[in-house]
Specification:
Layout: H1 2-14, H2 20-41, H3 52-62, H4 68-87, H5 114-122, H6 136-158, H7 162-166, E1 173-175, E2 179-181, E3 188-190, E4 194-198, E5 207-211, H8 213-230, H9 249-263, H10 271-284, H11 289-296, H12 301-322, H13 328-337
Antiparallel strand pairs: 1-4, 2-3, 4-5
Helix pairs in contact: 1-2, 2-4, 5-6, 5-9, 6-8, 6-10, 10-12, 11-12
Amino acid sequence: MLPLVESFVESLLHERRLSVHTARAYQRDLEGFSSFAAKTLGRDCRPRDIDTTLVRRWVASLFAHNQASTIARKLSSLRSFGAFLLRRRIIDDNPAKQVATPKRRQSLPRVLDVDEAFGVIDADLQPPPAEARKTAKANGHAAAAARDRAIVEVLYGSGLRVSELCALDIADIQRSDDVLRRPGSGGASRASSATVRVRAGKGNKDRIVPLGELALEAVDRYLARRPLLANGYSGQALFLNRRGGRLSTRSVARIVEARSRQYGTRTRTSPHTLRHSCATHLLDAGADLRTIQEILGHASLRSTQRYTHVSIDRLLSTYDSAHPRAGTSRSSASAGAEGVNPTDE
């Protein structure tokens, strides 16, 4: 069955134009199913061996080490593969479609409050050792510090996914001197001073998102020091590691977590936390869901609507702590009614 899986993955890449990362995730899920089926059947699994009983046994086996959301994704991969086999008339029906998807607990994204977000951005990390301050290492440290500041500014300011941030090239920072007349402003006012071009984001779709003035200033300060990290590298990657190569998503996660620890946020902070915080703070300030959907690059408005629950929860929390006649029972009941785990907030 594995050659058919490889053909399916090729169709995802070239026909549906999914990203390599997404296509490989499908492949891993299907290879996992193929391995389970081979052990269960005592031989290699053929497409016509797949039936609802085998699929249900596979799903049941996944519960030992996977969350419901992961199992749902794996089952979705098998359904998509079944549809692929149906189109090619290799099978007569799609048994995976007859197996119920495990119910997923709807957890709210963790977000920082505005002060915490600013604190992570402004976090003052330790300077280089005293003996290195008068050497080239000090210059490298200053360049890395400027880079790290620019990274968190862009993650929070533009709501990018970490993979999108790492894929940015210098030319993707697009400057603009456009002046817009905003309703009620009484005159012309400058729009966001730059934009970020996100190339082949999730779903392999390009988009343009705003880049605020503070984020642009941080990027410019970093670009002035970027040659210190480039080490002769002639490529166009925006964010570089200390060897001059493109920065990895894992490195960005470490940078964000280090700044979070330095500031002392209430919860562990990841690049995705900054993305969630960007969306929630935009909504709190009055941005409409469609605009936030465009900025985040969500294919469905349903994905963006999660942030309305975060904002409502924050509103209720503020009310409960500030209003003299507010009680705690109502907010607790509200959280229970929404199926929200307070530890997820």
